[in-house]
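Subject: Sanity check before I submit

Could someone independently write out the structure tokens for this chain? I want to compare against mine line by line before I put it in a report. The sequence has 463 residues.
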Amino acid sequence: MRRAAAISLRKRLVLQLLALAAALAVLLYVTVRTIAGDAAEETLDGVLGAATLAIADELRGGDDGVSIDLPHEAFSILGSISQDRIFYRIAVGATTVTGYDDLPAPESKAGIGLPAPVFYTLPYRETQVRIAAVERVVLAGNAPVAVTVTVMVAQTRSGQDAIAERVANRAAGLGLGVFALAAMLSMLTAGSVLRPIDRLAEVVGRRGPRDLRSVDHPSPTELMPLVTALNGFIARLRAALSRTETFITEAAHHIRTPLATVRAKAEIALRRAETEEARDTLRAVIRAVEESARSASQLLDHATVVYRSDRPAREPVDLGALIAGVVRSFAPTAELKDLTIRTVMPDTTVTIPGDRLLLESALRNLMDNAVKYSPPDEEITLSLRTDDTMAWVSVADRGRGLSGVAQAALTQRFARGGNVGDIVGSGLGLTIVDEVAAAHSGRLDLNERDGGGTCATLYLPLG
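---
Independent answer below. Compare away.
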């Protein structure tokens, strides 16, 4: 089944906030640019209109017609604002009295007769110009006649564009600053919004393998459905694990007890058998029962190891005391085979962090193999040593050895050496030891001994 691609909530939130910040920055730039353009045009229109009115105020009527003394101040005002070119035209009717006679008049006469100037923009001499036009009525001639005089003053728009550009550049800088600030705030906001999730994950992640209490961590309202679902899952898992443990315990009892009964009755029948054929059959039954009992026991041990290996307990374990307990439990079996168990221990206590139940299972399987495969009247040496970082437990016997089989093959489930077929075994002992070592970040080494036998060494880190 194809796994769905992981989606980062933090990335999605940051990208959405950045997109919003970018849109706001662009909107800010466009708004400021528009307002700046309008403001610059309005300001320059005011100056251009004032210059036009100043010129119109100098119109005079006389016997010789209309006369005007162009005010220098009007053009000085326009020149002080920018370095634009200035054009003007004074016309009586359609006749130009002075100025540029090709300066276009307004296309519409609406408003031209009002006291305030009329503004319009037209192309003129390969550029755009802003023109202010105003009309005045002047009495002129020997017999005074009212004539209409139109005053037009034009100015190129480079100054206005320059002002708008400067303001726009500042607006762009402001927009970039706002975007940068928004980017930083979006990162902080994303972290703040997702922090409750991180804290919830941390609280759950710190729990041990057997801590299946309901999660009771203060969480925002939006996370309560997740917490409720998680608590429901924990409750179902707790019930399932309880049923599994109960099943393993009951299975061990219901399997071992009948097998022990069958073996006892088969041994009694063996002693009473009268023919060799019957005795051979009963011996085969006893051997099958032993194999079944050992396999069942090892399977249950392996199930326990698998169950606990995912998150083993981390508690101080005294390896010396643990080894002593395992040796005491195997002493009666070793005496039946006339085996001697010798222990080599350091003078100081060796304590490691680990799961006592798993470590005990591993040591019991190593000792079980040593006792099972050793011939009578031999010695089994169990030693504990340490260095700066590791502790290792070695179990050395004089049994049948590895018969050239690689360690990787022997640690597979249900795998056994070719030289031990006549001895009851399940092929799970070394598998259990190897998995326990891996659960504790250690390793298992198997080596042939000089003179015959096997040395199995379990390495475990001290911290």
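---
OP: Matches mine. For the report I'm noting this point. The chain has nine helices and 14 strands.
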